[in-house]
Amino acid sequence: PMAQVVAGLLMFGPLLMAFWTPWRHNCWRGTRTGYIQLSFAGTVPFSVLNHFGHAFCGRWVPVLQKLDRSFIALSSIAGSYAMSQDMAYTLGAALLSLTTVCLMWFA
């Protein structure tokens, strides 16, 4: 269980650096960097919750795993736009992400 707590806590370091470095260089507003930050920030809360849930219960909790994976899929939409700057590509990524999430929860 302690390894899961450590894994959850270690996610905050990269998240902090992902926001601090572009802010320090004043290159985060209205740029691709902002969307990449949004994409990364969307994955961290439920990943941490998933690891803490495993530590608390002593096993993986399927609902928390689904939440973690759902927000990874949904956050990838912002990352798709950040990397491509193309709405057609982003809409395709959104369709694939939403399909993945729906299949995960309802199939």
Explain this structure to me?
This protein has helices at residues 2-10, 12-24, 32-57, 62-84, 87-106. Helix 1 runs antiparallel to helix 3, helix 2 (12-24) packs antiparallel against helix 3 (32-57) and helix 4 (62-84) runs antiparallel to helix 5 (87-106). With 107 residues, the chain is mainly α. The model has no long low-confidence stretch (mean pLDDT 90).
Short synopsis of the structure:
This protein is an all-alpha fold and 107 residues long. It has helices at 2-10, 12-24, 32-57, 62-84, 87-106. The mean pLDDT is 90.
List keywords for this structure.
107 residues; mainly alpha; 5 helices
Walk me through the topology:
Layout: H1 2-10, H2 12-24, H3 32-57, H4 62-84, H5 87-106
Helix pairs in contact: 1-3, 2-3, 3-4, 4-5
What is the structural class?
mainly alpha
Count all strands and give the number. Answer: 0
Could you estimate the helical fraction of the residues in percent?
over 70%
In angstroms, what is the radius of gyration?
15 Å
Low-pLDDT ranges: none
